[in-house]
Amino acid sequence: MTDALILDHCNKSYPLGAAPCRAADIGQKGWNVLADDLAYPLAVIRRSALAHNIAWMQDYARRKGVTLAPHGKTTMSPELFAQQLAGGAWGLTFATVFQLAVGVEAGARRAIIANQVLADADLDGLDVLLAGHGDLRVWFLVDSLAQLALIEDWARRRQSARRFDVLLEIGIPGQRTGCRTLDEALALAAAISRSPAVQLGGIECYEGGLARCDSAHDAREVTALVQRVLEVARCCDAQNLFGSDGLMLTAGGSAVFDLVVPLLRAQGLSRPVLGVLRSGCYVTHDNGNYARFLKQVEQREGLDDSLRAALEVWAMVQSVPEPGLALLTCGRRDISYDLELPVPVRHAPRGARVASDAPHGWTISALNDQHAYLRFDAAGAVPQVGDRVALGISHPCTTFDKWRWLALVDDDLAVSGAISTRF
Hints:
- The protein is an alpha/beta fold.
- Helix content is 29%, strand content 24%.
- It folds into two domains: 156 residues, D-serine dehydratase-like domain (Lyase, Ornithine Decarboxylase, Chain A, domain 1), CATH 2.40.37.20; 171 residues, Alanine racemase (TIM Barrel, Alpha-Beta Barrel).
């Protein structure tokens, strides 16, 4: 994958005057972010933090006695998928059949589509992938009799003998998809067990919508959801509604993943339980939303060491038009802003080859398409035109999707590799 990735002037931030090169060879260029060898803005991933995060989350899952299927929608990077799988991930999670295809290309042979699949084109695509890879196993979500009817209708019209693996989704009132009541869930599970088009492999939920970054609240609400899901699982088990395999229980966003471990380690069922954690944002972590949630996880778990921010976007100060305001060469086209604005994390004066922490009080107050508004105290540290500023992000998903490639950098910001994205 990395060997096949060719970088050239068609890729944002790649130097226009540089010859094309394979991503695997970019380290031979001798480029460094602080040498201004590449154009700004420039999204980078720190290799050391990336490796730490992959190993840390894998070890966390191992210690908890669960498996890990990282959510691929976060990065949509075949190279990062391959690293996560090589690091010990049981499989990968996706939101669409298109995303699944990218993961299969990267080597995934076990996958969860944590979403409903119901359109003809998607069922066709899933059928093609399964037919083309005899060792591939995929589970997707079902949450209504109406969806089940569409799948069965597809099977009749295609004259298909395919029996898809599915998970019954339990939802939260007022939030996203999923069955709302026990009766609804059991009626659907019974219909799935009778269907020639699907077989019930387990139960799924997503707890992230409950999280408020308040441990007391989050623990109470997520525990209640866990208990609801376990009740459904026990009832389905008692009625022998699951398929012939073991039973999968899966949950786990990136905010309060520790709170669903009791679900994934459920006891007292008649068949073996495979607990699958689906966190995705851990791979690069962030400096905002998930960093705050992780502090709560650390306190609940008594952790001294956890995830590190690996993703940042470097920009240059292009103008200081008035006291207290500087404009950076980075905007909505380049960096996350859906949850909150980015934050200055490091600063390197023009010509400096070493960066230091950004001065206290520097903030980003707004983004335009191509500009970031850096506010500062004019009586303190004042940015100068030509300075470089690294912006930390909140919610990595919506930074990754703004880049077709990202540079991998060493701790001294030497460019030593690259990854691609496939959004």
